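Homework help board

Subject: predicted structure for assignment chain

Our instructor gave us this sequence and asked us to write out the predicted structure in token form, then describe one feature. I got the tokens but I'm not sure how to describe them. Can anyone check?
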Amino acid sequence: MSTARVLAPEVPIAQVLPLLGLPQLDRYFDYQIDAKHHDEVQPGVRVRIRFGGRLVDALVVSRSSYSEHDGKLSWIERVISPDVVYPLQTRELIDALCERYAGVRSDLIRSAIPARHAQAEHADTRTPWAELGEAEEPDLSQWSSYAFGQSFVDAVLAGAKARAAWQIAPGEDWATALAALAIKTVIDGGGALIVVPDQRDVDALETACKQWVSAKQITVLGSALGPQARYRRFLSVLHGQGRLVIGTRSAAFAPVQNLRLAVVLHDGDENLCDPRAPYVHAREVLTMRSAKQQCALIIGGHSRTAETQLMVEQGWLHNLVAPRDVIRTRMPHIRAAGDSDFALERDPRAGSARLPQIAFQAVREAFGRGEPVLVQVPRKGYVPTLACGNCRAPARCRHCNGPLGLPTGGEAAVPTCRWCGRPSLRHRCGECGSVKLRAVVLGAGRTAEELGRAFPGVKVVTSGGAHIIDSIGDGPQLVVATPGAEPKGRYGALLLLDTWALLGRQDLRATEDTLAKWAAAATLVHRGGDVVIMANPGLSVVQSLIRWDMVQAAAFELAERREVDFPPAVRMAAIDAPGKTLDHFLELIELPEGGEILGPVDLPLGVHLPGEYDEQKFGFPQRVLVRVPVVHGMKLGKALRAAQVARATRKDTLPLRVQIDPLHIG
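My token output:
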């Protein structure tokens, strides 16, 4: 026999947000509060409610004395935990991001709040940070080498809303510099949050922080943590114990108390963009937090994105760049193959050979000094694909038009289609008729084999894919690595091979991304070392690296985007769906002023829609781009969100994907 429920004596109505993941139900609902839950049901706590005949999780948003709902209200079934996991600041941030990205609150909450783990709630998460260990005063002298660096540090420590685009100087120990500033901020009573793209950067920061604080005083948040550890560390941040927080993408939502400093590094890295709807970028999370919470912000990197440059030109961020004389004294000697008439006279094939004489010379000199050499190649593996040896048009299978490649085994292997598996014994280029073939990208494995033959007796190390080497020892050795997998160390020389394969990608961010990869590798070469780029020296991106002028490169990239009206000069949404669904969805969108629709076109190569459906009945998957002026960016998000609600109300269940300012447009 059930016991009759008694209404709470004060403010007995709770407004809750059911975590359903459905756009049409992404709103608040009123529920009655039982007297026995009166003290526990507070804004921000998790509860269980009955919705649509089943029990679901929900978050309490507020309480009130009455409801505008005319019918009978249901009861809150129970309180899952008394912890306020959805505080006001997080709620306001989630609401703003949902408008920016046309998202559903529960999708963002999934990233912001980890799943509850009951055992984690019994751990000590309330001991003050200062009592967790002894903290030493860090050395902040590295920042003085940047123009106005000391003034920026003083502003951060004073609690001002200083915001900077930090251009990391070549050879700079960025982890130590950031760790010092963050620790000093925490020692002075504030909170610090640093977000980086991957675990390698997290490890570097954690090691740097341990110079001045104990391991218990560092809160690391990342995907490698188990459910219990993740929730326990989340609670420590929520309760004010975790004040020095470093982590990957999802850490951007960490509810750090009295946040004074937020940092995001290498914001062009695609790891910082959530691959799940609504595809939020960590940079946007932290810029929004800086604006709402009035905290200092650093967006840093070896290079600079067009998005960061736009904020600098608008005056929202300020440059934090080392003077030219400091850069010149720190940077290695960077050259392009065939960069002068004299170089071409000495080596006529310098502009076309994969390893010209200048590259061999740089390697021999580094080995002569007893130093390792780094070789960066675009891909891992062994001759991934082929192209015409005459005009470089992609080599295609005559049966299915798939790309031709060579199986592992070397040049003697028969070119084989990577889609249908048919061998191509008598390939002829469809563009120029040539029968010659060449490797489009010689992978790390093949490159290591070639260099091993060229420099016998020298140790050859490969790093990339699932086999990443963290660091190397001293002494002569050849390290062949893919971008992002370069082992830590101080190299005497760097060779950047197959650069045209990176620059020639059909991608809006190809040039920007390539420069970032080059700069990250070049900063591992010590002062006086050699960097040789196998690329056309007349390209502006090559000249930017040679001069180490990343600011000018970002300004040039932004200017080019403005000319063609691409992000970040405009707000753009990519909408993918079957043909008929796309047509119906476009009818539901009320575009803001100045909006235009581009397309539809077929989905870019390698992009697929989730789920299965009858393509003959509903149409093949297509993409349209919706473009509006930047000033109407939030209106675009609202319009797309309203259209998704209307579509869901019509019970259209076919797959549809909406991405605002996607990293890859095609």
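Reply (TA_rk): Your tokens look well-formed. For the description, you could write something like this. Residues 152 and 162 are 7 Å apart (CA to CA). That's the kind of observation they're looking for.
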